[in-house]
């Protein structure tokens, strides 16, 4: 099933106390080369059926209006992921020329 990933981060101009706490913990545990951390949210939405323009528009609206708080957060990414089987099906459908070579024939 296709998955849509929505990434939400705190606005760059706002303090990120959770990120600051993680950065402090990393420094205390010997990872001093990491100077900053910002902590965001990741939503994975699974949809039934293909991801079409209507689903993309619906998810974009959800990301802006429901999954994030526009006062303090930005939607920084919406990614559309499909399984390898789904990608293989699309590839076969896109490149099938109607000719099926007999077994053992490579062209």
UniProtKB/TrEMBL annotation:
Domain of life: Bacteria
Reaction it catalyzes: N(2)-formyl-N(1)-(5-phospho-beta-D-ribosyl)glycinamide + L-glutamine + ATP + H2O = 2-formamido-N(1)-(5-O-phospho-beta-D-ribosyl)acetamidine + L-glutamate + ADP + phosphate + H(+)
UniProt protein name: Phosphoribosylformylglycinamidine synthase subunit PurS
Organism classification: Bacteria, Bacillati, Actinomycetota, Actinomycetes, Micrococcales
Function: Part of the phosphoribosylformylglycinamidine synthase complex involved in the purines biosynthetic pathway. Catalyzes the ATP-dependent conversion of formylglycinamide ribonucleotide (FGAR) and glutamine to yield formylglycinamidine ribonucleotide (FGAM) and glutamate. The FGAM synthase complex is composed of three subunits. PurQ produces an ammonia molecule by converting glutamine to glutamate. PurL transfers the ammonia molecule to FGAR to form FGAM in an ATP-dependent manner.
Coiled-coil regions, chain positions: none
Xref: Gene3D superfamilies: Phosphoribosylformylglycinamidine synthase subunit PurS
UniProt keyword annotations, A-Z: ATP-binding, Cytoplasm, Ligase, Nucleotide-binding, Purine biosynthesis
Subcellular location per the Swiss-Prot or TrEMBL entry: Cytoplasm
Enzyme class: ligase
Family annotation (PANTHER family): PHOSPHORIBOSYLFORMYLGLYCINAMIDINE SYNTHASE SUBUNIT PURS (PTHR34696:SF1)
Entry-linked Pfam families: PurS
NCBIfam families from the UniProt entry: phosphoribosylformylglycinamidine synthase subunit PurS
UniProt cross-references to InterPro entries, sorted A to Z: PurS, PurS-like_sf
């Amino acid at each position: 099933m296709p998955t849509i990933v929505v990434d939400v981060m705190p606005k760059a101009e706002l303090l990120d106390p959770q990120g600051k706490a993680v950065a402090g913990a990393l420094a205390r545990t010997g990872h001093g080369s990491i100077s900053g951390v910002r902590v965001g949210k990741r939503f994975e939405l699974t949809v039934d059926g293909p991801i079409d323009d209507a689903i993309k528009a619906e998810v974009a609206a959800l990301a802006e209006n429901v999954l994030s708080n526009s006062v303090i957060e930005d939607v920084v990414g919406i990614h559309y992921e499909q399984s390898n089987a789904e990608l293989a099906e699309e590839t076969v459908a896109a490149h099938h020329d109607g000719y099926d070579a007999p077994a053992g024939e490579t062209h």
